[in-house]
Design a protein that fits this description.
two-stranded parallel ribbon, 260 residues, Protocatechuate 4,5-dioxygenase, Chain B, alpha/beta, 10 helices, 18% strand, 35% helix, 10 strands
Amino acid sequence: MKRWPAIFVSHGSPTLPLERSAAVDFLHGLGGSLGRPDAILVVSAHWDTARPAVSGAAKPETIYDFYGFPPGLYRLLYPAPGAPRLAERVAGLLQERGLQTDIDPARGLDHGAWTPLFHMYPTADIPVTQCSIQWREGPAHHVRLGEALRPLRDEGVLIFASGGATHNLHELSHQRGNPVPQPWTVEFNEWLADALSARRRDDLVDYRRRAPHAVRNHPTDEHLIPLFVALGAGDPGGATQRLHSSIQSGVISMDAYRFD
């Protein structure tokens, strides 16, 4: 069976399904370039729990976990089937590593999950489930979580981490409409790309101290945390590929990575 990569994408604004941009063009092509997995496990920045949880919903609802956006956005659906068996497999893998894991019978797909999938796999016919993050536990915890999930890549599962290479909404409010990438965003973004390419795991796990402008780009960890799951799910010594790079509104990196 094909060994699937682990993927990290930056999902940007909830309006992603309505946008036309370089990042959207990339997502349109990503599903075709990857092919069709048997199932997708999403690790989104927008589901945070005290300990790991996975959705066992057979028909996960489309969650609109945002407000104040165009009415048409709230009429969009992503009616993918759930993946209850995959949820049980995920829980088992995590528990084998000592990570007690809950199965949520009703959890749907938040916008970190469904908005990029809306472009990647628009027919919404691939089973999808989500695994939560625990962002206060930090990057190292999530690398270990990704390592526990690595066997899924040999079982027809696409591990799909969705967050943001940069994420500061306060800065965004000042920069909105400014197309010029800000130097402090570019510097962090390139440091991240270099560290990932070289698999400098110690630097990455300690990025808040070692990366330039880290706290300004990530006042809190949660949007970068899914990247560490994808990093852990990649093979030790495996290749990292930067699949896409663009910056929106001056401060929002839409970078995406592939871990083999």
